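User: Some background: our group keeps a shared notebook of sequences we're curious about, and every so often someone picks one and asks for a predicted structure to add to the entry. Today it's my turn. The entry only has the sequence so far, pasted here. Could you supply the structure so I can complete it?
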Amino acid sequence: MKKILIPLVALFGCYTVISVLAQSQSQQQSQPTAPVYQPGSASIDEQGIRGYRLGPGDILDVRIWGQSDLNSMVEIDEDGNVSSLPFIDDPIPAKCRTEREVQKSVTDAYAKYLVKPRVSVRIAERKSRQPATIWGAVHMSQRVPMIRRIQLHEMVAVAGGFTDTAGGTIQIIHTIPELCPDPGEVATQKTAQGSDVGQLQSYKISALRLGGGDGDPFVRPGDIVYVTLGDLVFVTGLVNQPQSVIIKDQMTLTGAIARAGGPTRLAQKKEVHILRKKDNQLAGEDIKVNYEAILKGKEKDVILQPYDIVDVGELSAMSGKKITDMLTGLPL
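Assistant: Of course. Here's the predicted structure to add to the notebook entry:
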């Protein structure tokens, strides 16, 4: 009897395992598969490449289908023309045009000799525009290829952003004229007197952070972008954290003292000294300010100048507050 039961139990176990596996497999097949999302192929840079305007020095790969002897690599000359195509005597304008526009002109030129020519024009090398440079109070100084028009905030992002030592100003110098300005910019240049090459233009970091408008200009090929280092003021005396403070845009007396941790309990708030250096004077100027009155809104806050020394003094020995603080610390 036992010999009969053992094979039956084994057979039942195998059947159970097979049925469970089959059921799980059918459940897996019935479950919908999760869709796989592919990232978009069109990036901002690729959009810029598609709208790239040609210039002198760019190299084009010109191919005529079925006429391999006419294929050629040509460089746009200093005048902005394609002038070295086989059997084409007249130069083809290319400056400030797209590759598709040049392709149509090349097709029209070969249509005089070939029946319905199929022409392909592709950019092999982009050499017409110098890179722009950003340096100064940024994490990584960079030379940025100018494949497309980019704005100031993009230059700062490529450089890793501002460092803690950045001041409040970004300076831009144009070293060469813009190759293919927009029509609106051409009109502006015609009304302006002279060229802006070599001129220093300044922009506020605070305006750049607001985004858009005149505070976020387009950077041109060959531009030098310099993020200025902040000037310093020094806060000393009876403050919680005496230190040098970097001026960003404008620095007020209350702002500098706040950056230094604020005054201590024994600080003389009614008479804070600002030591300001003056040209050709060794001693400089001692400006007395009622810090307490500024906090109460009775007096106007003071705008500090680079390298000012803010000295927060001590209460006099017989002042009421100092006596109170001394008595508070005595044991009962």
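Suggested note for the entry: The chain has three domains: 45-125, 132-229, 232-323. The chain has a mean pLDDT of 81.
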